[in-house]
């Protein structure tokens, strides 16, 4: 079973979320772009911390997949594709978040099954 605070994919999710949150400090953004990146980035980082604390919680990895996809499509939905830096950050962090969530999913399933057998 996976020990809490050890899965590298979840640490990557925390870092990716923080990158999204902090991007408006060094990239030109609109108010919509800034708040989209801050809110989705914070949710990614928080969910990564939850996954680190509770590695057997499979739903957390599913949430990461959804949040990564939302961040990826946000430049089009929120209308900030003209802001190249913010857009590319959203696209790259979104794809990497989906990848980290997908890579962590088998480990979360395995940890969850380990808990089911211990009752």
TrEMBL record:
Database matches in InterPro entries: SPW
Keyword line: Membrane, Transmembrane, Transmembrane helix
SPW repeat-containing integral membrane domain location: 8-102
Regions crossing the membrane: 33-53, 65-82, 88-108
Annotated protein name in UniProt: SPW repeat-containing integral membrane domain-containing protein
Upper taxonomic lineage: Bacteria, Bacillati, Actinomycetota, Actinomycetes, Pseudonocardiales
